[in-house]
Design brief:
Layout: H1 7-12, H2 15-58, E1 73-76, E2 79-82, H3 85-89, H4 132-139, E3 171-173, E4 180-182, H5 197-209, H6 214-223, H7 230-256, E5 261-270, E6 281-289, E7 299-304, H8 310-315, E8 321-324, H9 329-337, E9 341-344, H10 347-359, H11 370-386, H12 393-418, H13 427-437, H14 439-442, H15 456-468, H16 478-496, H17 501-511
Parallel strand pairs: 5-8, 8-9
Antiparallel strand pairs: 1-2, 3-4, 5-6, 6-7
Amino acid sequence: MAVKYAKEQLNKLDKDFIIELFLGLQEQLEGLNGQTQALNDKMQLLMEQVILGNKNRFGRSSEKMSDPEQICFMEVDGNIVFFNEAEAVCDLKAPEPDNLELNVSKKKKQSGKKAADISRLPVLRIDHYLSLEELTEELGENGWKQLPDAISRCYKFIPAKVEVEEHHIGVYASKKDEHMVKAPHPKNLLHGSLVSPSLGAAIINGKYVNAVPLYRLEKEFERYGLAISRQNMANWMIRLGGEYLGVMYDYLHELLYDYHVIQTDETPVLVNKDGRKAGSKSWMWGYRSGYLYKERQIVLYEYQRTRKQSHPRTFLKNYSGVCVTDGYQVYHSLENELEDLRVAGCWVHCRRKFNDALELIPKEHQKESILFLIMKQIQAISREEKKLSELSSEERLVQRQLVVKPLVDALFVYLKQNQNKISKSNKMHEAFTYTLNQERYLRVFLEDGDVPMDNNASERAIRGFCIGKKNWEMIDTINGANSSAIIYSIAETAKANNLKPYDYFEHLLTELPKHADDTNRDFLASLLPWSETLPEYIRKAKKIENK
């Protein structure tokens, strides 16, 4: 119990004792003030987290741009469920299109050719002509002449159908001995399985491109008279990934080392049967070629049980160049280890930090905050950088030095001038600290025309995986996770190179088994997404951009 002195008692105390008593009380008061400040700081951070949490849960994200083509979806029990799709996109006043084909670039129209003849879609011509008798009755004998045909077009949709491909193989026996021979014939894609390249490609396309859960694919196949269980489909995917598609994955991995700039990101994933307790977090690491390389893009995923530094160290062990990341410290450590590796930072992550801090300020006062000015500065940097997207690497570097660098320099000067003016325990301080600590990496793009200023391309590449993983059943095991990484890598690489994923997978599953016994992998070059020997039907028609 603390001692309480009366006024008369204090008057009788020794001066030195009173001084010691005062100094002790002063020390206690400073300690209490420190504890109070610490509690206030914690309360401030908790309040900021609650505000941001509510905004993220119920509000519209300022990072997301309005996209009229985007369809809303929600998750129910881990499954993607689309809702109000018709209401979301309908416009009853919109005019009917003249045709349903993509606005694609076409070869120059040849003289005498009809428009229908140069369509990328197959055309079934159906003739409607009057007979000689009908013409004579209507216009009189020799009272008519033939004019150019009137052409009426509509688009016929042919739903999917399932057929049985039955191979009858000639078997022959010698009359002299027991020697027998069979006619050449294709082997089954998977030993003991009825799956074909087209059926395997259909499952892959549904699962890994369109994020359709296996149970829905199972029901869809039932409607076509096929009894394919989700277990069958999962098994096929694991086997196809391991026996065939993994070869292409390894080949793409080697080719990735040839790119001067790559980008990387990672996302958590749950694998129930990996030797740990159920619900343990694993990671899918994503690597892709630099976004500014418009041609021959590569997107790869790698499953790992942890987020340790050893995983990218192994994946990038033979890589020499620039790696664009989100600021994860693992890559900064790798840069110190690997002489030929340089790490570049992401300006979007920097902007997010300041945006989160700005969101905590009431809207009516946001423009008065230094955060608003910082966001405007970052916006100006992004706007000027966007103007350089179509330039060559050399031209882009020149313009970055002339136009973008002064803006970056001004921003960091402003941050350093105001760093000591803000509280050290809130989101604003976190944004300042993050950006200033990342300055070295955020400036890399100013020195290299091939380096993008953000890591958005990696996030976009991994976004489809993040949607699809909610519906995956085969990712229950390590084998399933590894096969998923392989298949998803090839699917995303195909999309990045403007291919039709279904047709590309069917082509791969048709051609790869022919080389199952090859020791030389040179044949893979002809199967790459950018190979000129790929059948033309695999390539998507390129849209003509409206200017």
